[in-house]
Design brief:
With about 425 residues, the chain is of the alpha+beta class. It contains 11 helices and 9 strands.
């Protein structure tokens, strides 16, 4: 890609990250309404957390009646960091039996109370013809549109599933968005979006497909790590242009778990790079030039993508690993400086210009600043990491970095 095209791609990603994760939106309300062909009292029993059908979706396992201050304890089916159901303490306000209630979350066993301080959820039921108009609204303070959009579609899905439940009496889990076929479609769309950046020809399409595959393999490594750490429902979601996200089935339990899951994205691909290099060398020796070039591109893309993920940016894998294994801010600063310097040195050896590398360093600094306030604070501190695990993760980080650094240097020698 030319410098101008690269700059456009990087600027687009920075703008999207700022829009999705950082831009201050203030207090916003998401409101959705739908007429459902069911009796108002029946829907009230489903939506009121203490109703006889409150477990219609499987989300609420049990709920205690509110005390004198309108506070109730609700047990949810979502897993906490200990694998047990999350318990939530909620305050109910403006309750009108059969038609209206508002709810605030005081605290739960998963997230810090500060996460819920601006959150308010309201449910309204109004009879309309032979059905009932159900209006759901959620108010919260947002930074970035990602969570705002997520809540919109979550509420939309809830209304759709409530409508189906009212009609059939059955609740169906999941949806089209996380269906494997949908995710394959998003991956294909991601490749098509990247295609023009590599040139609108067959070779450009092949490179876009290779890069998309590299992203999928990286997230597959995170998913495998989640499974090894006991997450029963890990999954991957493709986001066109931005890449993919692996999501665990419960909150993190320890600092070692955070570091291990973060490192396994690049760690999984560290096994792919030597294989791709060996296969490319073999294909070249046998005279299969096209296959050798495609395998070299696979090795180069995998190495460059994964080593870039290891740089010490706040939300990147490298930044997450270093924050867990470094015993203090001075050690974290020194380790971050060393890792970023090593990354820039690899780029220099690979033939990238000094201006490009300086620009890259600036971009990573901006990314770190954009994402450092986007984390969610857990209710309780994560379990500390043992010294032996700290050393093991540091050694693994250096090994994975070295493998991908060699892959970048080898691919640059083959493809330039």
């Amino acid at each position: 890609m030319s410098p101008i095209v690269t700059a456009i791609l990087v600027a687009s990603n920075l703008g999207l990250i700022f829009l999705l994760m950082t831009v201050p939106l203030g207090l916003r309300t998401v409101r959705l309404s739908r007429v459902i062909a069911a009796d108002r009292q029946r829907l009230w029993q489903a939506l009121w957390p203490l109703g006889s059908d409150a477990g219609w979706s499987g989300e609420i396992l049990s709920a205690e009646a509110p005390d004198g201050e309108g506070v109730a304890r609700i047990m949810l089916s979502w897993e906490g960091r200990d694998g047990k159901p999350i318990e939530r303490k909620s305050r109910f306000e403006d309750v009108v039996e059969g038609s209206h209630f508002s709810m605030r979350v005081i605290e739960d066993t998963a997230l810090d109370a500060s996460f819920w301080k601006d959150f308010r959820e309201t449910t309204e039921l109004v009879s309309e013809g032979n059905g009932t108009r159900v209006t759901l609204s959620q108010t919260d303070r947002y930074r970035g549109v990602a969570f705002l959009v997520f809540r919109y579609f979550a509420m939309r899905r809830e209304l759709s599933k409530l409508q189906r439940w009212a009609r059939t009496g059955q609740y169906r889990k999941g949806g089209w968005f996380e269906h494997p076929l949908s995710q394959v479609g998003f991956a294909a769309l991601s490749a098509l979006i990247l295609w023009p950046f590599f040139g609108l020809h067959f070779g450009g399409l092949a490179l876009a497909a290779i890069l998309t595959s590299v992203v999928a393999l990286h997230e597959l490594g995170h998913m495998a790590a989640f499974r090894l750490m006991g997450h029963n429902r890990a999954r991957m979601i493709f986001i066109p242009l931005l890449g993919g996200i692996a999501i665990g089935g419960r909150p993190y339990d320890s600092r070692f778990e955070v570091a291990f899951v973060a490192l396994m994205g690049a760690g999984f691909s560290a096994f792919l790079v030597p294989i791709a290099i060996a296969a490319s060398s073999f294909a070249s020796a046998e005279g299969h030039r096209l296959a050798a070039m495609l395998l070299a591109a696979l090795a180069g893309f995998a190495a460059l993508f994964n080593i870039a993920n290891l740089v010490p940016v706040w939300k990147f894998d490298g930044g997450q690993v270093l924050r867990q294994i470094c015993p203090g801010p001075i050690a974290l600063a020194l380790a971050s400086f060393f890792l970023l310097s090593a990354f820039l040195a690899v780029g220099w050896q690979a033939g990238f210009s000094a201006n490009f590398l300086l620009g890259t360093g600036a971009v990573f600094s901006i990314l770190s600043l954009l994402t450092m306030s986007s984390g969610v604070k857990p209710r309780h501190e994560l379990k500390p990491i043992r010294t032996v695990d700290r050393l093991a993760m540091a050694a693994a980080l250096l090994a994975v970095f070295a493998v991908h650094g060699y892959g970048v240097l080898w691919a640059s020698a083959q493809l330039i």
